[in-house]
């Protein structure tokens, strides 16, 4: 006999979720998965659009232009700076102002101006502007001489472009009129003498001109060279 009698087996009822929550439990994970996938896809799409837009903006941006620098004056193979400086000293002692390299550089720039099409009438003015400064004021005449010196010693090839005279024209002052001198009244001949104009008129000689027989200053009251004319 079994010393441990067993109680009769009774089946336990299985707990099942209510049927009204079953659809919700199944739907929630699916919806969450869709939302997560959609969010990831949207983020990737935004990153791709930003990357594409930035690349297009970079491609559309033109490359920066190189900085503009003033080109140095072009030296000529035929230039003679030593002779040019010597002539500058004869034009004006203050044109060099202790800096020979700068004075030669101004001469080269003046040559470039002439070669570049500067009107011939402005050559002397441009030269005067380049060498003026501080207490030094270059005149138009000195500017014309500077142009001639630059073309002669720094850029002989530009000589055909210089049509103005090498020196400013000097206004010709009209000649002074000869001094007016009043001739001394000529003494009448000794054989002709009139005491007054009545005698001159009576002799039929009125009016008497200076130098004629009988003329004397005493008969010419207004000193116009005619006696007894009134």
Shape: elongated
Radius of gyration: 58 Å
Find the structural class using helix and strand composition: mainly alpha
Give the number of DSSP strands. Answer: 2
Mean pLDDT: 75
State the share of residues found in helices, binned by percent.
40-55%
Outline the structure in words.
The chain has 6 helices and 2 strands; from the N terminus they run H-H-H-H-H-H-E-E. About 3% of the residues have low confidence. With 230 residues, the chain is mainly α. The chain starts with 18 loop residues before the first helix and ends with a strand. It is elongated. It has a two-stranded antiparallel sheet.
Can you give me a brief rundown of this structure?
This protein is an all-alpha fold and about 230 residues long.
Give descriptors for this structure:
230 residues; mainly alpha; two-stranded antiparallel ribbon
Topology:
Elements: H1 19-60, H2 81-91, H3 100-115, H4 123-131, H5 140-153, H6 197-202, E1 208-209, E2 226-227
Antiparallel strand pairs: 1-2
Helix pairs in contact: 2-5, 3-4, 3-5, 4-5
């Amino acid at each position: 006999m079994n010393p441990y009698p067993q109680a009769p087996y009774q089946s336990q009822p299985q707990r099942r979720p209510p049927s009204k929550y079953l659809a919700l439990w199944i739907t929630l994970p699916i919806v969450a998965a869709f939302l997560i996938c959609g969010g990831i896809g949207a983020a990737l799409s935004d990153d791709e659009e930003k990357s594409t837009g930035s690349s297009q903006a970079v491609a559309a941006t033109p490359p920066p232009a190189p900085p503009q620098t003033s080109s140095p004056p072009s030296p000529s193979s035929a230039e003679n700076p030593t002779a040019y400086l010597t002539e500058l000293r004869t034009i004006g002692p203050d044109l060099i102002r202790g800096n020979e390299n700068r004075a030669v550089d101004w001469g080269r720039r003046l040559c470039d101006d002439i070669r570049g099409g500067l009107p011939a009438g402005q050559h002397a003015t441009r030269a005067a502007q380049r060498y003026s400064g501080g207490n030094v004021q270059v005149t138009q005449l000195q500017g014309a001489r500077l142009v001639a010196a630059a073309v002669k010693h720094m850029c002989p090839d530009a000589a055909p472009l210089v049509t103005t005279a090498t020196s400013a024209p000097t206004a010709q002052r009209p000649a002074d009129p000869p001094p007016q001198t009043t001739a001394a009244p000529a003494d009448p001949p000794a054989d002709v003498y009139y005491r007054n104009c009545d005698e001159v008129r009576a002799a039929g000689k009125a009016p008497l001109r200076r130098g004629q027989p009988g003329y004397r200053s005493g008969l010419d009251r207004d000193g116009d060279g005619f006696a007894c004319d009134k």
